Amino acid sequence: MLNLKKINTQSKDLQANIPSAEPQYLQKKSAWRLRCVVHPVFSLCLYLLFPLSSFADVEQLINENEDSSLSTRGLKSIAVLQSLKHLEKKSLNSAPFVQELPNAQQVRSLFVATQALPIVDIQLTFHAGSAHDESIEKGLFGVANMAAKLMPEGTDQYSAKQLAHAFDALGAQFNVNAYRDMFIVRLRVLSDPKKLESALDLMLHLINHANFNASGLNLVLNNTKIGQKQVQENPSRLMGIKFYRSLYGQHPYAEPSVGTQGSVKKITPERLKTFRDRLLVAQNSNIAITGDLTAPQATALANKITQNLPQGEPAAAIPEAIEHQDFNLQFIPHHSSQAYITMGHLGIRHADPNRAALEVANRIFGGGSFSSLLSKELRIKRGYTYSASSNLTSTEAPGVFSLTYSTQQDQLMDSIQVAHQTLINFIQQPLTKTQLEETKEGLLRAYPMSFSSNANINAQIASIGFYGLPTDYLNQYQKQINALTVKDVQKAIHQHLHADKLTVVVVAQSLDMKALKNSLNRNIGIEVEQNVHSTDAKTPTKTTLATQ
């Protein structure tokens, strides 16, 4: 049985035996935030020379004696730099070695051994994101998000305060998040066996016994109401919600992960427990472990997790979404001085073989900040906007390809015509080899940051486990990018990008929908007016989009 008093006693005994040279930062929750209090030049040198994970463990030394003279801090800084020479040395371009661990419950468990820091990161990823909300009850949007928010708030045996103090005493971090695909539980703790075992027991206790009490639920509901009111004042948020609803229709991805003001009112402690009992089970999970352990130790850890989770069945697969076959135009009246525009269509699954090629294509088109084609056309050449970007999301079911920007009301129609024509040109006109090579180089240069820390590595291997990718995927991805040719990328563009099937959402003071439709049709060579999926609204009216 979990015993918090024993945990606190063990923690004090362990702390008393920690050598003075051992990092102390894990003993204080706030110490995870890196604060450079030394001379700015030295701070910059640290940042340039070492990844965050390499010098986070010296933060306690840096924070000591903040009122000391500059010369004293300089001497301490030298000692700090000296201590870093013993850290594990890695090639910046080498992906970590991912091991597949045997598991008694046949739950996929992946492990990366690192010795740079005496810590362990554990992530449990369940197929229990908001896309599965309606598997509990029709229209019950937001239940996964609510379960994530309330899980740390206590059990029948221990209060949230007691549990938080226990995690702090162990120098551990525990957090829970829900997304469209995933429900994620994370634990970070020292690799000391006693602390690791105690923190793991705490994590399992919360997963299995969180009581989702009514008082905590009511508090979150009140905060949700405030958040929903704020959404009504945020044109960008309104646009995003409308875009997903218009694009996905009745698909599970259509509703926001947080739910709606109407749906969250139906969430009760009993429904949250049903969610937990049905979806937070061993057979619906995968495990990622990164840290200062051996493979046998990590295997024992993963087996303990799966043996102590409830047993059940995998969640049903997320269904296919139905793609629009023509323009789908939507308008939200709003008094904002700026007009907000997004346009896009269904994208690809995470495991799609064309993902690498499309990531390169997206970076060239609109994902490369000010150097992208979209930004050059809208911002640099015409000054229509400060920032324009495109985004490619890949999920369990097909994700989204979209472009987004804001502009002045009097530039709205012209900017949409230019953005749409830029996409058409990108699809029709061949890429240059220079464009491709520069983009590939940029992606490969940034890629090592994906595994520059234990937390980043663990997130990567958790994604590998969740989406069923091979263990050597991190190395495969680099090879895939390197091998891409202009022909490969152009083929992926022609197959997956469609300028004639866009869902377009505009948030503005007014909009001539007929003129917009005709402009888009002219761009693709069609002069005949086609059916539009929204009324021609020109006068601002109150909208309650996020609270329906």
Automatic annotation (TrEMBL):
<dbReference type="GO" id="GO:0046872">
    <property type="term" value="F:metal ion binding"/>
</dbReference>
<dbReference type="Pfam" id="PF00675">
    <property type="entry name" value="Peptidase_M16"/>
</dbReference>
<dbReference type="InterPro" id="IPR050361">
    <property type="entry name" value="MPP/UQCRC_Complex"/>
</dbReference>
<dbReference type="InterPro" id="IPR011765">
    <property type="entry name" value="Pept_M16_N"/>
</dbReference>
<dbReference type="Pfam" id="PF05193">
    <property type="entry name" value="Peptidase_M16_C"/>
</dbReference>
<protein>
    <submittedName>
        <fullName>Insulinase family protein</fullName>
    </submittedName>
</protein>
<dbReference type="InterPro" id="IPR007863">
    <property type="entry name" value="Peptidase_M16_C"/>
</dbReference>
<feature type="domain" description="Peptidase M16 N-terminal">
    <location>
        <begin position="118"/>
        <end position="256"/>
    </location>
</feature>
<feature type="domain" description="Peptidase M16 C-terminal">
    <location>
        <begin position="266"/>
        <end position="443"/>
    </location>
</feature>
<dbReference type="InterPro" id="IPR011249">
    <property type="entry name" value="Metalloenz_LuxS/M16"/>
</dbReference>
